[in-house]
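Before the break, one more example. Copy the sequence into your notebook; we will annotate it together after we see the structure.
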Amino acid sequence: MEVKESLPDGADFNAVWSYLPHAGAAKLVTVHFFDRWSYMQIEGKRIQRTRLIQKGRFVVSVETEMIIPDEDSSEPCYEPETVELLRQIAEHAERGDVEWLRRHGKVYELLDPVAR
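Here is what the structure looks like once it is written out:
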C-alpha cells in the first residue's frame, strides 16, 4: 500500500507499506520524497520471474527479481525499484514507445485480424 503523508516541516512524501500476513503486521518498505527514492532493502531469498505487462496493443515480457521475505515466506514481493520499473513500462506501452520498451524487455504487439 502506498500512503501520502507529510512531515512536520510540510514536506510531502509517499510511504510504501507491505502487509506480512504470516506475521500479522505491516512493514515500511520505502519512502519516496519527490523524485528521490530511499530504499530499505528487503531481506530474503531472491528469485527471478518473468512478468507480462499489457497496455493498449502491447504486451511486454520483462525479467524481474522477486524476494521471498525472511519475515514472511508466504508470498514473494517486489522491491520498490522493480515496482517503479513496471509502472514505467506500463506508461511507455500505453504511449506506444516501442524503442524504449525494447531496451527493457521483449515487446509483442497485437495486430489487427486480417479481413476475409
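The chain has a mean pLDDT of 83. Helices lie at 80-95, 98-102. Try to locate both features in your own notes.
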